[in-house]
């Protein structure tokens, strides 16, 4: 499915990316997929480790992201995307975003996410997705970039 994929994690940076992606999807007249990943941990042999709480936490994450999407859609001035789908998965964020990029026209991410070090200009997830994506990637800078 072509369209725009936006990765969100609840951070202010991902909120700006979500807003930008909604506007871009509206302008391009393409669907928007909002992807949130409840991060998995790596097992001893490198695979995905799942705990009993992961399904519940993934569902909670999807509920929170749906609420954020509704807020942004309500505040959106001008045209709206033709469709918006919210997906939450339990996995590795970079792996999911790169896999989704195979079928997308564009991936949109904030410059930094909820984790990591605030002094980094580009978060580790964004940096890895930029290097490995199958389609163009847009990194939305923070609003205060000019104040630094």
What is the 3D shape? globular
CATH topology: Rossmann fold
Give the name of the CATH superfamily.
HUPs
* SS-based class: alpha/beta
CATH class: Alpha Beta
The biggest sheet, with number of strands, parallel, antiparallel or mixed sense and barrel status, is: 5 strands, parallel
Instruction: Give me the strand/helix succession.
Output: EHEEEHEHEHE
Percent range of helical residues:
25-40%
Provide the spatial order of strands within the biggest beta sheet: 5-2-1-6-7
Count of separate DSSP helical elements: 4
Number of strands: 7
Task: Describe the protein's architecture and organization.
- The chain has 148 residues and is of the alpha/beta class.
- The protein has a single domain (8-40, 47-142), classed as Rossmann fold (3-Layer(aba) Sandwich), CATH 3.40.50.
- 39% of the residues lie in helices and 22% in strands.
- It has helices at 12-28, 54-75, 93-101, 124-132; strands at residues 4-7, 32-39, 41-42, 48-49, 84-91, 106-110, 137-140.
- It has a five-stranded parallel sheet, sandwiched between helices.
- It starts with a strand and ends in an 8-residue tail after the last strand.
- Residues 115-121 have low confidence and may be disordered.
């Amino acid at each position: 499915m072509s369209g725009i994929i936006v990765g969100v994690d609840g951070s202010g940076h991902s909120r700006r990316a979500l807003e930008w992606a909604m506007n871009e999807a509206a302008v391009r007249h393409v669907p928007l997929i909002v992807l949130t990943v409840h991060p998995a941990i790596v097992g001893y042999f490198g695979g995905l480790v799942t705990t009993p709480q992961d399904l519940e936490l993934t569902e909670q994450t999807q509920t929170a992201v749906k609420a954020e999407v509704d807020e942004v859609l309500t505040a959106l001035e001008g045209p709206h995307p033709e469709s918006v789908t919210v997906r939450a998965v339990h996995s590795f964020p970079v792996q999911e975003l790169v896999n989704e990029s195979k079928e997308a026209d564009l991936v949109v991410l904030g410059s930094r996410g909820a984790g990591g070090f605030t002094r980094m200009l580009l978060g580790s997830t964004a940096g890895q997705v930029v290097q490995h994506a199958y389609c163009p990637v847009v990194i939305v800078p923070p609003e205060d970039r000019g104040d630094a």
